[in-house]
Structures are given as structure tokens and as C-alpha cells.
Amino acid sequence: MSQKDKPLSAAPESAAHTVGPEPLPIWFFVGIILGVYGVLVVIAGLVSGETDTVLGHTRPALWWGAVLVAVGYVFVAISRPGPDKAEYKGPGRRVQTRPPSFPVAPVDTPLAVEQDKVWQVLCGDTAHWRAGVYSPELTSADDIVELERHDCPELFLLMDGEVTLLIAEGGKTRQIELEPGKPVLVTAPHSGFCPKGPHSGRAFVVERDSFDTLYQKVSEWTAPSKV
Amino acid sequence: MTVIHLTTIDWIIIVLYFVAIIGIGLYLRRFTKTGEDFFMAGRRNSSWVAGLAFLSANLGALEILGWTGGTMKYGMAVAHWYWIGAIPAMLFLGLYMMPFYYSSKIHSVPGYLKLRFDERIRLLNAISFAVMTLLMSGINLYLMALVFRTILGWDWNVSMWVSAIAIASYITLGGLMSAIFTEIVQFFLIWAGLFLVSVLGVMELGGPGEVFQGLPENMGRLWSTMGNASNNEMHVTWAGIVMGLGFVLSFGYWTTDFLVVQRAFSSKDLRSARLTPITASFFKMALPFIVVVAGLVAWKLTGQAHSGFQLLNHPNNPGELWHDTALPMLIARYYPPGLVGLGITALLAGFMAGQAGNVSAFNTVWTYDIYRAVINPKASDAHLVWMGRVTTIVGILLSVGTAYVAMQFNTIMDYIQAIFSWVNAPLFATFLLGMFWKRTTSTAAFVGLICGMLVSFSIFIGFKLFGPSMASSGLAQMLTFSADPSEMSRNLWQATWGWVVCFAVTGGLSFFTKPKTDAELEGLVKGLTPKTDEAQVPLIGRPAFWAAIAAVVLVALNLYFW
């Protein structure tokens, strides 16, 4: 689960990596460097002509430079940033969560849970799971503008108070009132609210510690899909 | 006298390399905010990126020059260092050790030792590793300056300081991510700039068959001459190759040296981390097609009086041929302007990536295993990033200092091999017992490691100072199974004995000291770590599948060149 309208980041105590824009892939730089060098070597080959080096009559600068240009082009072509490449340009936004995405928690002792915090990651197991507490500040389904969907399932279990989930399913939304002692495994786009007031309920959440999230408006999740 | 003359286009190519790597560092700075970003490259890399960086951290110009020249002395046997001397260890690391490393959320190899054992052994390893990396970085710098002074006439100080400043810049800016990016660039530059030497050499000789035809058996075979030390140029038996190189030195380096293992830690998840060394193994197996082929071409040309090809004399020992100049002399022979610049850039990239790798490993070990562990345990993440940046600059300055010392006392190189067998070989015994036997105790591991390190170094000192006495007394025969062991053979056996002693002392003493409880060892030892569940992963995505393919290729290569 992630904070509404805010890219997910690990709890402040953990040494999390920066979530957000990713650097250009290394292959792009490799391609540029090989391509530029290839061009320079070809130019050198054209300028110097046949040289007195052994096998100089075969003009190795020309054909090897051409090979480098071709290889460089391939690397750039497969890795260049574009609409169908690394950056998602569709509706909504994507956020990546990668391990370690939880703080170092003390063991064999109760964990402190902050009050009035929408989402708090408590602990986890790298490359496996993480757990936290979700306490929405919104109080009505009508207040919810955006739903989020992870590429992994998420387990909710009501701790105290009241928490209701809003999910998008089959072109419409429906609500799931969490009940004490009855966990709910969620895979659909979702958000939540506390009908009795901001942060008046809390749910315990378990999810993977590495996943991607897509945020879209409610209307986009419930829009008819194009054939 | 310089043997390679650079034209304007060559200089443009060389200068462009510096511009590119510093530009990459500047670009990556904005993605380097937290400690995980700076020291672990954000743990976001795919197995391809981490795997190539893993290999490139090890691959350097020093190795390429050294083993090309080594092929002229030892023949095909040099390929052992790329095949039996690397691949089994890399596969073992990926399949069996990476789950313990990656899942224990450590930042460094000494960090694992702290969790598994205690602070004593972590500090011992951290300090010895820190010293080793600084020495290696400095030696790299010195040898780079020596090579470029000899073949290009470049001034010592200019070579060393320009490289040092460039490395300090991009590592300080972008941390491990910068190091990884430049290592991968270096990998492709080495193929782009140096593979052509082998191609042209094969063309000159008349084809691949001509390269291997007519080679004496002690030069052209991998294993058939290893039954007796006198049958091969290395003067080593198959036992020394298998045990000393294939097991002790190889496993000790590839599974415990943080310089390479750190690259696997930068992977985005456990499966990628396990695939990292396995991916790298395929590229490692291909490297002899640069190094060994070029070396055999050089050997053949040297034997042809009309070829005009000859090596330079060693600048420090004028009467001795300097085999490390084989590759530069081939570059001078075949490469016209433009390609010369590319070849020199490839060598430069190789040297600098080696130094950068050592410095990035040093700043991580210092920051997490010495500074945070002992000096300032309450340091914030932002402070640790600052410390990492400062340590990079200090580490580079210390490396430059070491390089100047090496200039005055060039026999320091003799001690480098000993350092690897002194630090890495016994450490592997500690890891083997620590990861796979929960009974291993902290006290036994600490004492065993010290004993192993002392034994390895003692054997080295013994041969260095009392070589003739050791030969005549039969001690040399007992330790190396050869009355007149080569330096290569001595290195392999001193590593082996260091491992054996560490293993025996650690194992034996564990029965008399108190082990940790199962709860304390959760996730750190086999049997107390959940097995990786790959039921949902298709076969082609499983590390074991690719490890099996690599093993088959390894066996095929060894059989073909038997």
C-alpha cells in the first residue's frame, strides 16, 4: 500500500534508494561511445589511407570503425528512451518500489506505530515481504480521486477502528468493509477511507518488498476497455 | 624511445574517454542521494549490468597485458586462469553463496562476517581488505604509468595524476553506479580496442589453424602436460592447478573478494544477484580469445626472424625481456592512426577501471565496516554518504602515495601475489565453514583465519629469503611437490596451505568453543535459511539452468584444448 498521491518511498529510517526517475540505461552510453569512436576511426582511416603497418593495405580502420558504428547503433536502438521504452507515458504514473524498502526494526520487542500516519512501513524481509500499517485520512469514497494497483497481491487485516477499501472491478467500483480477524487479499486497483473520521481505523498490511505501482484516476480504472 | 606515436585523432579519442567518464559521473550524481544509492548503486541493476560489472571489476589492463605476455612464456596453460581458475568459483558463488550474502542485507563481505561471527573477525577482514585494495590501486597506477612511459613516453606524474583526478571525480560524484557504468564501458572498449589485435594477428599468420599449428606440446595444451611439473613451462602439476588455482585461489577470490562481490550486491533482487556471477562466467570464458590468441601470435612472430617483431626490455631490469609489452608492440605493429588511439584508450580504461573498482570497494568497507562499526555507530545515512565521498578522495591520494613508493621500490610487486594468497585463500575456508556448518564458532573462525594468513605469508617469506635452503632441505618438495618450483607454483601452494591450515584450525577449534544459537544464525547458514522457491520461475529464468550451460561449455573447452 502506498501513500495517496505520493510516490512510495521506504520509511525514513531505512537507507532506501531514490524512488523516481531512473538513469538512462548503461547500454545507451555504451552505444553512444562505440558509435562516436567508430565514426572517428573511420574518419582516421579515410584520412590516412593505406598505412605502412602490417596489413595496412586491408584498411582495418575503415572496416573495424564501421563495425563499431553498427554495434553502437544497435545498443542505442535497443536502449534509447522513447514512448515504448523505459518511461511510461500512458495515463497515470508508475512508481517502482525496490528493496530494501523497509526500516531496520528491533527484534523480539513490540514495534512502535505512529498515530495519524496514512502509511507506515514497519519491517520486512529483503527480497521477500514487508509489513506496515495503513490508516487513511479520507472519510468517504467520494473523496477518493485516485486508485493504485500493484503488480503483486496485498493482504489487509483490520487492527482497530473502521477501514473501508474502495476497489475497481469489472468497470465499476465497490467497497469492502474490513472486519476484525478477517484478512482480505487485494489484487485490484484500490484505495481506502475511514468512515468514522480521519485515521480512525488502522489495517495491518503485508506485501512484497519489490513491486511496481500504477496510479490512475478512478474514472480511468472504470472506463470501458478499448478493443 | 617511444614505440607508439600518437596523432591528433588518437589524442581526440583518448581525451574523449576522460570527458565521457566524468560526464557520466556528473549525470549520475542526481541519482545518488542515499547510502544505498552511493554504496550499492541503489540495488536496482539487472543481472546483465551487475554481471558485466562483476567481470570488469576483475578484468583490467594489468591482467590483459600480463597474461598476453604470460602466454608467451607459458602457452595455452594461461587459459586455466580464465577457465578452471574462475568459472567453478563463479558458479558456486551464484548458486550457493549469494542467497546468504544478498538476503542478509549486508553492505559488504566483512558485514556478513560480523553477522555470522563477531566484530573481531569483521574488523580483521575489513582492515586487511582495505590495505589490500589500496595497495592494488596504487600498484595499478604505478604499472599504468610505467607502461605508458615506456611505450608512449608519457611523464610519470602526468599519467598518474590525470588518471587519479578523473577517477576521484566520477566515483565521488556517482559512487558505485559510476564505477559500474565505467566498468561496463571499459569491458566493451577492451573488445573494441584490443580484439582486433587478435584478428589481425590471425590474418597475418594465415588463419586460426596456423596460430596453433607447430606449437610445442608444452605450450599448446591445457592438461596433457600437467602430469609432471617438468613437462610444462609453468612447472606445476595438475594438482596445483586444480587445488591451488581451481579451488583455493579461485574460490577465495571470486567468492570473498568484496571488489567483485559488491557488484552482485547492486542487483535488484535475489535472482538477479545469483545470476550475476553466472552471467559473467560466459564472458570470462571468452576472454582467452583476446589474451591467449594475441599471446600466441606474439610468440609465433618472435620466432620468425623476418617478422621484425620484438619485445621491449624491462625498464627496471634492462637485460630482461618485458613480456607485458607484447600487446602494446602488437598494437604498434597493426594499428594505424585512429585505431592506435582506440587501443591505448582501451588499455587506459582497463587500468582506470581497476583502480576505480578498488577505490569504490575501499570506501564502502571503510565507511560501513570500520567508520560506522567502530568510530561513529550513530552516523546518519547522509553523513555516511559524505564519508564515502571523502574516503574516495583520501583513498585516491593514498593510492597515488603507494604508486610513488612502488616507483622507488619496484619489488613491491612481488608481494602482491602473496597478499592475495594471504588474505583471500584462508578467508575462503572461513566462509566455507561459516556458511555451510553451523557448528563453526566465532573464536575458532578468528583464530583459524589468523593462522591461515600467517602460514601463507610465512611460506612466501621462506621462499623469498631462504629459497636455496628450502630446495636443498627438501622443504620445497614437501610444500609444492616440486624440487624447483616456479614462482607460479609457489603462489598456488602457499595459498593452498593457508587454506588448509585455516580450515583445519577453524574446524578443530569449533568443537571446543561455544557456537551461536540457531536463532542467531537464521538466514546466515545452510539449513537455517529458507530455500529459494523457483517453482513459478520458467526454466530459462533459473540460475541453475544457466550454471549448467556454463559448466558444459567449460568442460567442452577443456576437452577441446586438452
Describe this structure in words.
The complex is a heterodimer of chains A (about 230) and B (about 550). Chain A is of the alpha+beta class. In chain A, about 20% of the residues lie in helices and about 30% in strands. Chain A is elongated. The relative contact order of chain A is 0.18. Chain B is globular and about 70 Å long. With about 550 residues, chain B is mostly helical. Chain B has helices at about 10-30, 35-40, 45-60, 60-75, 85-105, 110-115, 120-150, 155-205, 210, 215-220, 240-255, 260-265, 270-285, 290-305, 325-335, 340-375, 380-410, 410-435, 440-475, 475-480, 485-510, 545-560. In chain B, helix 3 packs across helix 8 and helix 19 runs antiparallel to helix 21 (about 485-510).
Can you summarize this structure?
With 227 residues, chain A is of the alpha+beta class. Chain A has helices at 26-48, 60-79, 218-222, and strands at 93-97, 119-125, 129-134, 146-150, 154-161, 164-169, 172-177, 184-186, 190-193, 201-208, 211-217. The longest helix of chain A is centred in the first third of the chain and has 23 residues, at 26-48.
* Secondary structural class of chain B: mainly alpha
Tell me the overall shape of chain A: elongated
Instruction: Tell me the Rg of chain A in angstroms.
Output: 26 Å
Content-based structural category of chain A: alpha+beta
So what's the overall shape of chain B?
globular
Helical percentage of chain B: over 70%
Alpha carbon gap, first and last residue of chain B: 42 Å
Q: Largest sheet of chain A, if any?
A: 5 strands, antiparallel
Radius of gyration of chain B from CA coordinates: 23 Å
